[in-house]
């Protein structure tokens, strides 16, 4: 989409340079698709380009993974095969590729779209929000005057297209703690059409083999997270969803009616509960949707075989 209101593109990652009429530019896949009027009644005048910031896309350490806001989807998708995580023993790395696949986008989008941009866009179906919220990601936010603050990604998105950023603030990175990466996980996603936008996306995490963390996204206008100090029974899980997700919180658009999203949330939540309650790699486990379990790359045929 042509953005003919733009008067200047400024290469900066300093919130002190921000002024009214500015927009931060990372990959630009949402900004250039929707146009500036999609984000408010007044058009943008300047784009503050984060491209030259030079932030390291992914940093792996003993306490977890630091993902820069400018890390692309393609770079995140490549991480599970990288030597940096090869010996870490983090089962939750299995979530990275299903969440990237949930974009249902071309390689052109994957090479431009950024983790931070997807989270800041605050779309209910944003899969980077789903991934980072489910793994207890903590966002670092930079502000004018050299200030900074942190907030859990689960609370970063506040509604359909809204987030917690104040004018001029900038998402710098998301930290995924090793404690969450070390947990056993389960993933479920549904859409109304083959290769369609996510209508329901749930991720379950079993901490220390006993405590369930369930994160509901796409079905709801903002992430909803349920925490249990144990593995609940079906009735307890359903009652917790009743309490945590009022009917008005379910999203309503062409990708799914609220009633369907609610029904599928309960269905997928129970599948996740049952999967994490069973021994790992249990055969014939009921799985709805796509992108799970993780696909095993096919080995190349050896000569003469």
Structural class: alpha+beta
Radius of gyration: 20 Å
| Uncertain residue ranges | 298-305
The spatial strand order of the largest sheet comes to 4-5-10-6-7
Secondary structure: helix percent:
10-25%
Instruction: Describe the global form.
Output: globular
The number of helical runs is 10
Please trace the helix and strand order, writing H or E for each element: EEHEEEHHHHHEEHEEEHEEEEHH
Strand content: 15-25%
Task: Walk me through this protein's architecture.
This protein is an alpha+beta fold and 305 residues long. It has helices at 31-34, 73-78, 96-101, 107-110, 115-121, 127-134, 153-156, 178-181, 234-244, 258-277, and strands spanning 8-11, 22-25, 46-49, 58-61, 64-68, 138-143, 147-152, 157-159, 162-163, 170-177, 184-190, 200-207, 211-217, 224-227. The protein has a 5-stranded antiparallel beta sheet with strand order 4-5-10-6-7. A 4-stranded antiparallel beta sheet has the order 11-12-13-14, sandwiched between helices. The chain has a 3-stranded parallel beta sheet with strand order 1-3-2, with no helix packed on it. Helix 9 runs antiparallel to helix 10. The chain is globular, with a radius of gyration of 20 Å. The N and C termini lie far apart (51 Å).
């Amino acid at each position: 989409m042509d953005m003919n209101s733009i008067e200047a593109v400024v290469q900066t990652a300093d919130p002190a340079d921000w002024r009214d009429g500015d927009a931060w530019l990372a990959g630009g896949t949402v900004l250039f698709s929707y146009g500036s009027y999609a984000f408010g009644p007044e058009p943008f005048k300047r784009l503050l380009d984060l491209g030259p910031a030079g932030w390291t896309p992914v940093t792996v350490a003993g306490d977890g993974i630091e993902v820069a806001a400018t890390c692309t989807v393609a770079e995140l998708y490549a991480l599970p095969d990288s030597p940096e995580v090869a010996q870490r023993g983090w089962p939750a790395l299995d979530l990275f590729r299903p969440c990237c696949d949930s974009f249902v986008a071309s390689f052109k989008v994957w090479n431009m779209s950024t983790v931070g941009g997807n989270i800041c866009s605050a779309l209910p179906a944003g899969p980077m929000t789903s991934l980072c919220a489910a793994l207890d990601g903590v966002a670092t936010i930079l502000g004018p005057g050299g200030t900074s603050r942190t907030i859990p990604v689960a609370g970063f998105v506040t509604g359909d297209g809204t987030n917690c950023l104040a004018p001029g603030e900038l998402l710098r990175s998301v930290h995924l703690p090793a404690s969450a990466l070390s947990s056993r996980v389960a993933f479920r996603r549904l859409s109304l059409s083959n290769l369609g936008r996510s209508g329901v996306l749930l991720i379950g995490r079993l901490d220390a083999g006993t405590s369930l963390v369930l994160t509901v996204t796409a079905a709801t206008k903002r992430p909803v997270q349920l925490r249990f100090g144990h593995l609940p029974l079906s009735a307890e899980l359903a009652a917790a969803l009743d309490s945590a997700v009022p009917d008005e919180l379910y999203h309503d658009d062409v990708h799914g009616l609220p009633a369907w999203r609610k029904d599928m949330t309960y269905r997928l939540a129970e599948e996740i509960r049952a999967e994490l309650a069973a021994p790992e790699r249990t055969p014939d486990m009921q799985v709805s949707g796509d992108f799970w379990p993780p696909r095993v790359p096919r080995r190349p045929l050896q000569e003469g075989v």
